[in-house]
Write a structure and sequence with these properties.
single chain; alpha+beta; 10 helices; about 25% strand; binds zinc ion
Length: about 375
């Protein structure tokens, strides 16, 4: 067989002393001309032969070791079937093509990889799916059992799962010979990649089924029971194994991830296991002190406000926060006091306040705990 082979230099149309750059250039030209994508119908077979011939010549002559062996012994010196540039049986790939074209086609030919060979076809795990679920703070604190509707896939009834229009059938992919993989050479390494034409299925469907767009499966919906653990927090994910997209060629399904979003609460703000709330308290109550009622996630509680409580004072209610998913104890509730200035006063109320003001002024700084340090600081500033 080797004797009928054309000389590699002749195939590429380059001189015996051609540089690697010359060889690449020549191959690029031939590859463009004879690539199966550009040669369909009549003459496809002949073009494919030419393409393979050019590819082999290119692979041999761009490998310094093999080129030396070829220069010395001719075809007898190199056996393309033993080379690193070749894959296993049936893997008649377009290796070297992407390499020769570098960045231009690299993306298209740089397959997704990640697959594993099984029964001659690429087997892929299905993609993971993500589902955003919004819950209230109360639900997050107590946990929740709920149902969600998620996509599921069923075999297409119209084509019986083949993906081909009824009455037609899928053809073996010409690019990979049905293996689903092609081999690309990079230096001394041969890299197995998913066939870019059939995406690893090994089959091409000339007439796809209209019902499933040639997928062989149709997207449906199914109901899934979900248990949300008590204490879950914003951004946490619940994994539901095997409920993602189905695998390819019998590969395992991906997983479903339910990502938790917590709705903004009217009263509480969460910080880890702790809760915070702001309690408006009238100026009078703050001054005189007294019991005030505060809300908690588990009902109402009371705070004893001391006389002369200042704005911004924080009270901690131990254990009235949230017990996190991995916590042994619940967090605390922090009540921040916001002293409220009365508004829309009547003339009479204004008069009373003015009288109060006069009275307080007579008492001097002892009625204003922050005033002295404040005036001192201002004095320092202008010294
Ligand atoms: Zn179908
Ligand atoms: Zn293929």
């Amino acid at each position: 067989m080797a004797s009928t082979k054309r000389d590699y230099y002749e195939v590429l149309g380059v001189a015996k002393n051609a540089t690697e750059e010359d060889i690449k250039k020549a191959y690029r030209k031939l590859a463009m001309k004879f690539h199966p994508d550009r040669n369909q119908g009549d003459g496809a077979k002949a073009a494919e032969e030419k393409f393979k011939e050019a590819k082999e010549a290119y692979e041999m002559l761009t490998d310094a070791q093999k080129r030396a062996a070829y220069d010395q012994y001719g075809h007898a010196g190199v056996d393309p079937n033993m080379g690193a540039g070749r894959g296993g049986p049936g893997a008649e790939g377009f290796g070297g093509f992407a390499e020769a074209f570098g960045d231009i086609f690299g993306d298209i030919f740089g397959g997704q990889g990640g697959g594993r060979r099984g029964g001659g076809q690429q087997v892929y795990r299905g993609s993971d799916l993500s589902y955003a679920m919004e819950i209230t703070l109360e639900e997050a604190a107590r946990g929740k059992e709920t149902q969600i509707r998620i996509p599921s896939w069923e075999g297409c009834e119209t084509c019986g799962g083949t993906g081909a229009k009824p009455g037609t059938s899928a053809k073996t992919c010409g690019s990979c010979g049905g293996s689903g993989t092609v081999h690309m050479r990079q230096g001394f390494f041969s890299i197995q990649q998913t066939c870019p034409h059939c995406h690893g299925s090994g089959k091409i469907i000339p007439d796809p089924c209209m019902a499933c767009n040639g997928q062989g499966k149709v997207k449906k919906q199914k109901t899934l029971e979900v248990k949300i653990p008590a204490g879950i927090n914003e951004g946490m994910r619940i994994r539901s194994a095997g409920n993602g997209e189905p695998g390819v060629n019998g590969g395992p399904s991906g997983d479903l991830y339910i990502e938790i979003r917590i709705k903004q609460h009217d009263i509480f703000e969460r910080d880890g296991d702790d809760l915070h709330c702001t309690m408006p308290v009238s100026m009078i109550t703050a001054a005189l002190g007294g019991n005030i009622e505060v809300p908690t996630l588990g009902g109402k509680a009371e705070i004893e406000l001391p006389e002369g409580t200042q704005h911004g004072k924080t009270f901690r209610l131990r254990g009235k926060g949230i017990k996190g998913v991995r916590s042994s104890y619940p967090g605390d509730l922090y009540c921040h006091i916001a002293v409220e200035t009365p508004v829309k006063l009547t003339e009479h109320q204004k008069k009373l306040l003015k009288e109060l003001d006069e009275s307080l002024k007579k008492g001097g700084e002892r009625h204003s705990p922050n005033a002295k340090s404040w005036t001192d600081r201002v004095k320092d500033l202008f010294k």
